[in-house]
Amino acid sequence: MAEYIIKNGFVFDPVLGINGDKTDVAIKDGKFVETTQLANPKTIDATGMTVMAGAVDIHAHVAGPKVNTGRNFRPEDKLFNCTPRRGVERMQGGFSVPTTFKTGYDYARMGYTTVMEAAMPPLYARHTHEEIRDTPIIDQAAFPVFGNNWFVLEYLKNNEIENTASYIAWLLRATKGYAVKVVNPGGTEAWGWGLNCENIHDPVPFFDITPAQIVKGLIEANEYLGLPHSMHVHANNLGNPGNYTTTLDTFKLSEGIKPRGGWGRDQVMHHTHVQFHSYGGDNWGNFESKSPEIMDYVNSHDNITIDIGQVTLDETTTMTADGPFEHHLTELNHLKWANTDVELETGSGVVPYVYSPTIKVCAIQWAIGLELGLLAKDPMRVFITTDHPNAGPFIRYPRVIKWLMSQQSREEMLNGFKHSEKVIDATHLMGIDRELSLYEIAQMTRAGTAKALGLGHMYGSLKPGLEADVAVYDFNPEQEHAPDDIEKAFGNARHLFKTGMQIINEGEIVSNGNKRTLWVNARVNENPQVMRDVKEKFLRYYTVTQNNYEVAGHHYVPNPYVIEVDATQ
Amino acid sequence: MTKTVTDVVCPFCGTLCDDLEVVVSDDGKQLLEVYNACAIGAEKFLHSQAEDRLTRPRLQQEDGSWKDVTYDEAIEYTAQMLASSTKPLMYGWSSTNCEAQGVGSEIGEITGAVMDNTATVCHGTSLIAVQDIGIPHCTLGEVKNRADRVVFWGCNPAHAHPRHMSRYSIFPRGFFTGKGHKGRKVIVIDPRKTDTANVADVHLQIEQGRDYELLDALRVAFKGLPLPDVVAGIPKEQIYEAAEVLKSGRFVIIFFGMGVTQSLGKNHNIDEAIAVTRDLNEYTKAAIMPMRGHYNVTGSGAVWGWQFGFPFAVDLSRGFARYNPGETTSNDLLRRGEVDSVFVLGSDPGAHFPFSSVKKISELPSVCIDPHQTPTTAVCKLHVPVAFVGVEIGGCAYRMDNVPIETRKVVEAPEGMMTDEEFLEKVLVRIKEIKGE
Amino acid sequence: MKKLAIKVNLITGRSIQQGVSMEGGKEKPAYTAACGIIELDPAEFKRLGTYRNTNVRVTSEYGSVIVKAVEATQGPHPGVAYIPMGPWANMVINPNTYSTGMPTFKGTPVEVEIAKNGQVLDSLDLVRKACRGEVV
Q: Would you place residue C2 in the very low, low, confident or very high pLDDT band (cuts 50, 70, 90)?
């Protein structure tokens, strides 16, 4: 493979502690190496530019059945943005729910090289993997959802952690999944009857278990196995005024539990899109930000990480395994509603949504996300996301970075809202003068996310030995710049390497790369009871046979990267 | 000696039964018996063994006679036809696997084709309605485990999806439905007294083509508001009663078929059926599901969805994907003479399109990829027989509830026969050469 | 003498025989037997003044086809006639899509008249001959 040296750029690498120093980056055989190891490298001149490791997205909905429902039921999302086949690029289209090809290219253009699909319904795992296969360039993994799964509900009702762990290991292998995802624990099962679980003590109909038991049990099972990533939760009561207490209650379930497995992560709970969970007030009239209360907790508890779920004030497509929430949303905005309940496992809903800057609540939501990022004491534990496409499309990450880095750009927004004064009153953003540094941005988008995913040994840094994923941005931190220059630079990587292959050269996509699908193969001791339970559920309640359930075959995962976990001890 | 292959997936209808057992000869070359399948599915497996099966491509001569050609010649013919067309129609894609569909998409991109699948004459109007109003949906296991109210509207699974009622909808006992059939109330709405209607608790023999009115009347009845004495041929007392049956259920499922999608009103009928389902979610839990026909028409819509963003009628001729049913749909394109060649794979428009469209196909350069002889092959210039997907080659297929299942290969195809995917791959390579890519 | 014709509302759709015979081969007689038919109520036979299993000509604004008239298996359905989906039905159904892409397969007004000496063609022949203009 070709050798490259990226010379003279301003390097930001929190893992190596490099903060804008001019350092050369060497690539050989797909990995970063010491510059002395290169024989005859091709030189990339990064003079006056910013160099960072390829970014890692910890939470986005980019592949699978609900994403495709969003695409197929929103032809209007493709208006004026379809592009032709050109060079190595396939046809592309879509704004909030882009086609798989556009997804891969757009992430690459922003310097992202690894993306986690945040919710995979196990029964639809094949579909998710087919889309991942057709998404070029980026490495991906998918998180199967566990929080409403009948096996999990039955085991955890009796606090059977070992059986839960065995089942998790079985399902990760069957679905080629990566981590334990929990969405509205218990609430989506309740939605099978049109009901919901609104707080962590609200029992699940029939199953006689509470969301708190589900969350705590899954954290314990996750650490029993010692998986690379922690349990990844979207708590109950999303999107409702006053829900921050449910969020704090959920956070507290992690107390006293320590990470296991030796993957380098410090957290046992990742709480996703916390913006949607940081609301005060008790109706839409007195709706307000509770980000200080939330961040006080996060800042003082090392075993939690979060991502922000920033609202970008766009027309977008919401989609989540939180079925009852999407029904609630369609009742609010009266737009079209798709829902799919999945036997024994989960559910989901999809509703278009317009986050308008002229609507007070939307503007407050926008402010809350930024507050979470700006109140973070440790940027290695607080990550940038838009919960794509729920709070906005991922292509807005450069804009979110601009807002976090520029008080001026934030205040222009705050002063420009239709209900400016009310929004300022209901939030804390106006008083915050912090401007994040490029070093902190690198923590929130690379070093921190890679570490939290248990992938610090592959991604997130330019350290020799790691995968050679690196982005060069046309941004000179030593020069005067307008806020918009930040957005422009982070949206248009000048150069991009993925596993040592040049993907973008001088702003042009020149390769479809060699994308990989990561999955976790957790080995556990034989557990005849769980295998009996699996067999029985397939015989009696599933509508596919057990032998037709497992995702196997080259056409689903043509280029796997398997992470082995030994939980037999 | 023989061997039995279990967990075989039936490549006939959207029910996609995956519990068939197939007995094959020891050398894996002959398929001997089929168990658990319906009459249609069994016939599909057994017909693959027909002695008179065509195994090589053939070209139709001026006088209507056929001349055998090699696969290489067929690949060249197909590649040249597509590469020299300005707007080819690439139709079908419903009786093949998702892998072949994916290769077809790339051919369509390079040649500027219009990609359309059998939804265009089946549930295309449902797809349009979903774009209008969304769809509260569920997997078939949810029906099996929870549903206590089952509605079949304009569909006749006893004939079209023969094992649907026993596997999913009427008879099975599930987790919360231990009483099976006894615990469910079944309502059939159909202008005919169908065999499905015969097993229902209620049959509303609707006046043909009046589905919109009756659906609307149900929405009125849910709210307890006044109705005319008779709507769509149904007395109002029966409508109020049906509304009450639905509202009082714990989980309502509405299955619908061609009776609503193909009658006048078309997508608007489905809009209203989905609105009925939305309304029911105010009172209880309700879902609605189209009874998809071909075993992988759903997969075709899924593949195009993630690759182009549209489930059918995808026009790539301008260099990017466009979608406008009524303009970019097969029958409209054919009748208006807007395509200059026709490529068919995994469907039989010769049998299932209106004759005016079939005649247009016969007048154009045309290629048909199909294991069978069909009315389409009868009017196409080149017929390429291929291996049966789901019998002689596996691959992914999507059930009517969008659940993807890997079909199985149970026997070898006759020697030297290509699969859809192999044939398309070679055509793609050749077209890239011709186009200089 | 004026030929007797009855007017009915034509719908099409699947039948199990249609499905089985289609998979068995559309060139085979079983497919013609399953789909080259029109299902009529007994009352319609009375109106038409003929016996069951007589060949009839079905004509609409859009075309014409000869099929065998049989008694409705899933009836009665007054005023409605049924031809299983296939090339015979598609000779006469309303092909207009009204900007939906979907031809109007169900609900075509047709006239049915006795055609004792008419021949029901097999599916391949029917389509081929019709394309060449050899059948009316």
A: low
Kindly list the structural domains of chain C, giving each domain's residue range(s) and its CATH number in brackets, ordered by start: 5-131 (2.40.40.20)
Could you please report the per-residue DSSP string of B263-307?
A: STTTHHHHHHHHHHHHHHTTTSEEEEEE---BTTHHHHHHHHHHH
CATH code for position A434: 3.20.20.140
What sign does the dihedral B237-B243-B248-B251 (CA atoms) show? positive
The whole-number pLDDT of residue B437 equals: 84
Considering only CB atoms, which chain C residues are within 8 Å of B266? Answer: 98, 100, 102
Distance from CA of B90 to the nearest CA of C (A): 15
Question: Is A17 among the domain residues?
Answer: no
Structure tokens at C10: 């034509």
In this complex, whether A and B touch, counting 3 or more CB pairs under 8 angstroms, is yes
What are the beta bridge partners of residue B67? B59
Distance CA B30, CA C79 (A): 48
Task: Tell me which chain C residue has its CA closest to the CA of residue B161.
Answer: C16
Mean pLDDT of A496-521: 98
Range of the domain at A439: 53-452
Looking at residue A447, the DSSP 8-state letter turns out to be: I
Residue in chain A lying closest to B130 (CA): A73
Domain B124-290, architecture per CATH: 3-Layer(aba) Sandwich (3.40)
pLDDT digits (tens, 9 = 90+) for B299-344: 999 999 999 999 999 999 999 999 999 999 999 999 999 999 999 9
Considering chain B, what percentage of its residues have pLDDT values greater than 70?
Answer: 100
Sign (positive or negative) of CA dihedral B101, B107, B110, B111: negative
| Contact call for C87 and B351, based on CB within 8 A | yes
Tokens of A104: 């891969």
pLDDT for A569 equals: 82
Under the banding of pLDDT at 50, 70 and 90, the label for residue B1 is confident
pLDDT band at C135 (very low <50, low <70, confident <90, very high): confident
Test A85 with B319 for CB contact under 8 angstroms: yes
With respect to CATH, is domain B58-122+295-435 assigned 3.40.50.740? Answer: yes
Q: How far is A303 from chain B (nearest CA, A)?
A: 37
Domain assignment present for residue A496? The answer is: no
Q: Indicate the number of domains in chain A.
A: 1
Instruction: Give per-residue pLDDT as tens, A436-466.
Output: 999 999 999 999 999 999 999 999 999 999 9
Domain B124-290 in the same topology as domain B58-122+295-435: no
According to DSSP, the residues that pair with B256 across neighbouring strands are B153, B290
Residue B223: strand, helix, or coil: coil
Token readout for B56 is 């090589």
Task: With a cut of 50, say whether residue C1 has pLDDT above it.
Answer: no
Interchain CB distance below 8 Å, B138 and A78:
no
Considering only residues 318 to 377 of chain B, which have any Cβ-Cβ distance to chain A shorter than 8 Å? 319-323
> Per DSSP, which regions of A368-413 are E strands?
382-383
Residue A1 maps to a domain: no
**Strands of B20-25's sheet, edge to edge?**
B2-8, B20-25, B31-35
Q: Is residue A200 part of a domain?
A: yes
Q: Give the mean pLDDT of A431-439.
A: 97
Would you list the domain boundaries of chain B?
Answer: 2-47, 58-122+295-435, 124-290
CA distances from B413 to B42, B420, C22 (A): 17, 12, 20
Rounded to two decimals, the pTM is: 0.97
